[in-house]
């Protein structure tokens, strides 16, 4: 619903965390471009959980790298996919982190995030409570 469209979940240590229902390449691209328009040159860390059945099967995987172009860094949860997230996002080089474990993904995001960043979490599910976990972990960081 509308609630899961760019819902601001909180800001901790200057890092704002958003939730969005974007779960296919067109929605991901539109959402990221909208946030880019809103935040200007501020860094956007895009966090993606390819969770829908079509995404897990890889039906739209070829469009994913292009869909995240408006992000400065991309974090992909690659667990239980019928395809390799590393291979699909490899053309984006070092700007992408792919993780098979949620804790590993959270660690990478928290390590990367800094004051002024915008973390956009995109999934059509609860994503293991990642929003709350990110905000808690960011609050414990000493900067």
Description:
With 143 residues, the protein is an alpha/beta fold. It is 36% helix and 22% strand. It has helices at residues 25-39, 53-57, 64-67, 85-89, 102-112, 130-140, and strands spanning 7-12, 15-20, 44-48, 73-77, 96-99, 118-122. A six-stranded mixed beta sheet has the order 1-2-6-3-4-5, with helices on both faces. α5 (102-112) crosses α6 (130-140). 36% of the residues are buried.
Protein traits:
143 residues, alpha/beta, six-stranded mixed β-sheet, 6 helices, 6 strands, 36% helix, 22% strand
Task: Calculate the terminal CA-CA distance, rounded to whole Å.
Answer: 36 Å
The total beta strand count reads 6
Radius of gyration: 14 Å
Strand order of the largest sheet: 1-2-6-3-4-5
Low-confidence stretches: none
Mean pLDDT: 92
Strand proportion:
15-25%
Q: Which of globular, elongated, flat, extended, rod-shaped describes the shape?
A: globular
Order of helices and strands: EEHEHHEHEHEH
Number of H- or I-type helical stretches? 6
Give me the secondary-structure category.
alpha/beta
Describe the SSE topology.
Layout: E1 7-12, E2 15-20, H1 25-39, E3 44-48, H2 53-57, H3 64-67, E4 73-77, H4 85-89, E5 96-99, H5 102-112, E6 118-122, H6 130-140
Parallel strand pairs: 2-6, 3-4, 3-6, 4-5
Antiparallel strand pairs: 1-2
Q: Can you summarize this structure?
A:
The chain is an alpha/beta fold and 143 residues long.
């Amino acid at each position: 619903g509308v609630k899961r469209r760019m819902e601001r979940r909180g800001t901790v240590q200057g890092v704002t965390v958003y939730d969005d229902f974007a779960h296919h390449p067109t929605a991901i691209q539109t959402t990221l471009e909208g946030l880019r328009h809103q935040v200007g040159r501020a860094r956007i860390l895009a966090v993606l959980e390819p969770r829908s059945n079509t995404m897990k099967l890889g039906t739209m995987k070829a469009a994913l790298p292009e869909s995240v172009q408006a992000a400065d860094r991309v974090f992909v949860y690659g667990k239980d996919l019928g395809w390799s997230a590393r291979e699909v996002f490899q053309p984006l080089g070092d700007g992408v982190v792919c993780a098979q474990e949620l804790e590993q993904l959270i660690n990478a995001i928290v390590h990367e995030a800094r004051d002024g960043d915008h973390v956009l979490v995109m999934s059509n599910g609860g994503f293991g409570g990642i929003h709350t976990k990110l905000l808690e972990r960011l609050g414990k960081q000493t900067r």
